Amino acid sequence: MPVFVYSGGNQYMHISQEHQAPHFPVFKKWGWPLALTLGLSLVAAPSWSQTLHTPSMGTSTSTLIAQSSTIAQMEAEVVQQINQKRQSHGLPPLQLNPKLSLVARSHSQQMARHNFYSHIDPQGWNHRRRVEAFGLQAYLIGENLMKCIQSSDPVGLSVQSWMNSPAHRKNILLSEMQETGVGIWRKGQTYYVTQIYMEPK
């Protein structure tokens, strides 16, 4: 069966404009040598520190555990593989922040449940607003997304696709980033993968 891959992007770096989608950041398509690969990078202005007054995300997000033990292992593997990429470039590993993982997991769950694929959720919140609503403060926050359909290795495919995209790769290899969180949610044969990168205050 063909593998469908949608690589969602980086809201720290800005890449060249190809099209303008209404109510969404500029996006650019990327392609990789897979049976059938579709890439979508959503980008915007740098996510520098800003003050946002937002309500709490609520109990459901603060207690959202991994969908299954298998999914929990996949989330850990994303962190492991990303840190291997960083260390191979002479960078220190990212430290896992459980709160960031809750934010990432909630976003993946929402994308799966509400059938959207974007850094901007149905409430109009971007990744910074979601993170700060959870009580975290940061100088820089980046987010990489991946949507894999009928893939036998969503983790490896996500990491390699991000590394093949200059904008996503920049999030991974940005020396200022110190912490990370990963959330994966499965719906049928589709995996939604979210990784957040943060330079905390």
Write up this protein.
The chain has 201 residues and is of the alpha+beta class. Helices cover 33% and strands 21% of the residues. It has helices spanning 59-62, 69-88, 98-114, 127-133, 154-164, 166-173; strands at 4-8, 27-28, 41-42, 95-96, 138-149, 179-187, 190-200. The chain has a 5-stranded mixed beta sheet, with helices on both faces. The chain has a two-stranded antiparallel sheet with strand order 2-3. The longest helix has 20 residues, at 69-88. The protein is globular.
Give a brief description.
The chain is an alpha+beta fold. The protein is built from six helices and seven strands; from the N terminus they run E-E-E-H-H-E-H-H-E-H-H-E-E. A hairpin with a 2-residue loop joins strand 6 and strand 7 (190-200).
Protein topology:
Blueprint: E1 4-8, E2 27-28, E3 41-42, H1 59-62, H2 69-88, E4 95-96, H3 98-114, H4 127-133, E5 138-149, H5 154-164, H6 166-173, E6 179-187, E7 190-200
Parallel strand pairs: 4-6
Antiparallel strand pairs: 1-5, 2-3, 5-7, 6-7
Helix pairs in contact: 2-5, 5-6
